[in-house]
């Protein structure tokens, strides 16, 4: 037991190092991105930077802008436009989170009260709109039509994904394929765009752009699979949000979809009562977790995630060996092995 | 009394003709804009065109895209990009309406139930986001960086205006200047952009672009002044929304601001109770209207609107005489004299 604990601890430390390496690689760029972000949310209406800054400051891993910056380095990009693009991508992501929290009526994110919980839905709707508009201003400043087309289409696709997810809520006929479509739109697409967008500022041949798209898309799939798994597993202080939120909100993620398929008659009735009808009693979440464990669902979801991470790794195969490539390959493992 | 009625009727008919003339001028273009709009909101997720189409179909006057198309003609623009820009402007406007109705908790718009009232806030938030993203796709397709910069900045400014308006809600210290700033951002800016944007697709000298900006900005100011006045005056079937909504929601528009300044001690107490504290009893709206009448506030607001409409007219002075110019000059009067 003590050995196992030590093993886990070492594993976590190794995993953290992979994220640290990425942070170190893009550190000076990321500082500049943060300056751009702060500058863009400055406003004569104090309420805007207050609400926007709440979520921006709360931190998160900044994984999307870091991917954007690291892939720019991988393509040997030498200008400064990648800074705007990384900020723009973070704005799209943050706008989505603000509106998501309104839609899900969430009270906590990254361990802090959500903006909608503090200032009300109205502020979150408008500040989300504000950030979305600012993301377009930032990308327009880059003055590259192809880049603009990719980013504006990405933004539409994300919203389609959010809509599909909303419509699948409490719908227990949602299939694994439906789920994979949803997470591809709402999450993987932005990872793909973050990874490839700066290559369009360089002269790298199209197969490299495609490779970065595939890398990001598959990494994003793995990311969301693990994210949804962690909602049935993580320790609150790590994930920031409360474990079990998806269960309580009736969000149909892969753990539920697989459970519905693998459960016996009595368990199926349990899922219908809790997930479909929203009748949740004390102890039901623990019961849900124990079914997931019994049916080996969390383990199998990790295997599903590894399928995508394997594709993401091979996608980078056409790039020459470099420090950047090594760090990006490691970040794939970090995504799958993380506990937060 | 009968004579007065006949006079009003004739006045309304004359006014309607001004709008009809504009519609006729841009008719064939507007049909193409509608095709683009329908095409862009088509989606594999049926719920999106259903919600978006509800508001789009409900109609409204389409004043912004018509201004865009008419001003393109005034500048002798010969291409097809103005169609995308007109659709993009209508999308920005519609997205704003969807989110506005969530923020104001409105139940009716243009005589129909609001989208948030039928399908809930979540749908309205997401479909608003969807339309905003599609508006960026549409403008990106035009492939003109200057046009993109103007439109993306406009979108940010509108949201700032919405935010200021939200923050001024029930705040009776809001001044007339505050109010003018708010309507400039939330309404006039989009009128200005709609009016000038197509000139950037042509070779007209910059003073003509500036003139169109001034025309649109001042027309937009007049439009919103009248809109806010009509909330204390219009007949429900004309305006579509219920008269008195602003009063009930505690929205601080010019009628309230002037009333607060011109009222005696007892009336001031009435405004504080109703607008600031939101304690509204049956008959209070009628009482509010009677104070506005006694203090000649509605008449003076129309004078304020005429101030802006005069500037809008003079702004067009540098354009040569043409059918288009005449129709645009008439539409200024329509905006100020309308009852809906």
Order of helices and strands of chain A: HHHHEEHHHHHHHHHHHH
Major beta sheet summary of chain A: 2 strands, antiparallel
The CATH C-level name of chain A is: Mainly Alpha
Kindly identify the CATH topology of chain A. Farnesyl Diphosphate Synthase
How confident overall, as mean pLDDT of chain A? 91
Backbone shape of chain A: globular
| Share of helical residues of chain A | over 70%
Q: Which band does the percent of strand residues of chain A land in?
A: under 5%
Strand order of the largest sheet of chain A: 1-2
Task: Report what the structure shows.
Two copies of one chain form a homodimer. With 340 residues, chain A is an all-alpha fold. The first copy, chain A, has one domain: Farnesyl Diphosphate Synthase, CATH 1.10.600.10. In chain A, 76% of the residues lie in helices and 1% in strands. Chain A has a two-stranded antiparallel ribbon. The first copy, chain A, is globular. Chain A starts with a helix and ends with a helix. The model of chain A has no long low-confidence stretch (mean pLDDT 91).
Concise account of the structure shown:
Two copies of one chain form a homodimer. Chain A has helices spanning 2-41, 47-58, 63-74, 81-104, 115-119, 121-141, 145-168, 176-196, 206-230, 236-239, 245-249, 254-262, 265-276, 284-294, 297-315, 323-337; strands spanning 108-109, 112-113. Chain A has 340 residues and is mostly helical.
Topology:
2 copies of one chain form a homodimer.
Chain A: H1 2-41, H2 47-58, H3 63-74, H4 81-104, E1 108-109, E2 112-113, H5 115-119, H6 121-141, H7 145-168, H8 176-196, H9 206-230, H10 236-239, H11 245-249, H12 254-262, H13 265-276, H14 284-294, H15 297-315, H16 323-337
Antiparallel strand pairs in A: 1-2
Helix pairs in contact in A: 1-3, 1-4, 1-16, 3-4, 3-8, 4-6, 4-7, 7-8, 8-9, 9-15, 9-16, 12-13, 15-16
């Amino acid at each position: 037991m003590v050995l196992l604990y030590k093993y886990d601890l070492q594993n976590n430390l190794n995993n953290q190092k992979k994220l640290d390496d990425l942070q170190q690689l893009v550190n000076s760029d990321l500082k500049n991105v943060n300056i751009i972000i702060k500058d863009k949310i400055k406003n004569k209406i104090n309420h805007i930077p207050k609400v926007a800054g709440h979520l921006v400051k709360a931190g998160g891993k900044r994984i999307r802008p870091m991917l954007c910056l690291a892939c720019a380095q991988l393509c040997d990009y030498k200008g400064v436009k990648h800074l705007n693009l990384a900020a723009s991508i973070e704005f799209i992501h943050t706008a989505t989170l603000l509106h998501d929290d309104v839609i899900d009526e969430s009270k906590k994110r990254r361990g802090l009260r959500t903006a909608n919980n503090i200032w009300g839905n109205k502020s979150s709707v408008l500040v989300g709109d504000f950030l979305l508009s600012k993301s377009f201003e930032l990308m327009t400043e880059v003055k590259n039509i192809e880049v603009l087309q990719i980013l504006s289409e990405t933004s539409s696709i994300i919203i389609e994904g959010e809509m599909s997810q909303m419509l699948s809520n409490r719908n227990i006929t949602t299939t694994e394929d439906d789920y994979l479509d949803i997470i591809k739109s709402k999450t993987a697409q932005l990872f793909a765009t973050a990874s490839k967008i700066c290559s369009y500022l360089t002269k790298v041949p199209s197969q490299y752009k495609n490779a970065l798209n595939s890398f990001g898309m598959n990494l994003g799939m793995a990311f969301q699979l693990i994210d949804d798994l962690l909602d049935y597993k993580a320790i609150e202080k790590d994930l920031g949000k409360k474990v079990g939120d998806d269960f309580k909100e009736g969000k149909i993620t892969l753990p539920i979809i697989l459970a519905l398929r693998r459960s016996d008659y009595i368990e199926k009735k349990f899922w219908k009562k809790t997930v479909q009808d929203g009748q949740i009693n004390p102890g039901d979440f623990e019961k849900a977790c124990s079914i997931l464990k019994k049916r080996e669902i969390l383990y199998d979801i990790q295997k599903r995630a590894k399928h995508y991470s394997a594709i993401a790794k091979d996608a980078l195969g056409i790039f020459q060996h470099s420090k950047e490539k090594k760090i990006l390959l490691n970040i794939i493992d970090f995504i799958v092995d993380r506990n937060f």
